[in-house]
Amino acid sequence: MSTETPAPAVTPDRYVAVQRSDEFAGLRKALRNFVFPMTVAFFLWYALYVILSAYARDFMGTKLVGNINVALVFGLLQFVSTFLIAWLYSRHADRKLDPVADRIRAELEQGGEGA
Question: What is the dihedral of CA 9, 14, 15, 19, to 10 degrees?
Answer without folding.
Answer: -150
